[in-house]
Write a structure and sequence with these properties.
The protein has about 170 residues and is of the alpha+beta class. The chain contains 6 helices and 5 strands. Helix 2 packs across helix 5, helix 3 crosses helix 5 and helix 4 crosses helix 5.
């Protein structure tokens, strides 16, 4: 954690991102570009953003964003008449905007983790070797071996030799 604290402007956020990636990583330490969630395939970056969204649910900026979205819908005349439909439309737009901002924050945190060697990032998809990274390619994150050992969920049991009579400690 100390290496993250010294290399990232948001170390707690970067550590949470690293933990979430470790949670969905396969046995080889790689995660993405797609993961399975509730029987559906979801892009890893979208899943990470959605997993981190509840942290700022009561954030005053999030509440202000909801008010700005409502105001924009009212000004353009696209706010649904039903209050339930209006709330749903506002929530969908807020979620889309928060996800877009979350992808920028996620990218920054991953770049910090890549810079210190805790994570590797590569892209998979159409035009893999194209110089423009955005050519319909999706991010794949791979944990460095040291990171895999530190964040390993499986704890190997300690194997003790079977007890033999007259070997019991006093």
């Amino acid at each position: 954690m100390a290496i993250i604290a010294h290399s990232s402007s948001r170390p707690r956020y970067a550590f949470m991102v690293l933990n979430l990636i470790a949670e969905v990583a396969g046995p080889d330490g790689s995660a993405g570009p797609w993961i399975e969630q509730d029987g559906q395939s979801v892009l890893l970056r979208d899943w990470l953003c959605d997993a981190l969204v509840p942290m700022g649910h009561r954030d005053p900026r999030r509440i202000a964003l909801g008010e700005r979205v409502r105001s924009a819908f009212e000004d353009s005349g696209t706010l649904p008449a039903s209050s339930a439909d209006a709330d749903r439309a506002i929530e969908d737009e807020v979620r889309a905007r928060v996800r877009a901002a979350g992808k920028s924050n996620l990218s920054r945190a991953v770049s910090d983790l890549v810079r210190v060697g805790l994570l590797r990032r590569h892209y998979q998809g159409f035009r893999v070797d194209h110089h423009n990274r955005g050519a319909q390619r999706q991010a794949v994150y791979t944990l460095a071996p040291v990171t895999r050992r530190l964040l390993s969920r499986a704890v190997e049991p300690i194997m003790r030799p079977p007890a033999v009579q007259q070997q019991l400690p006093l």
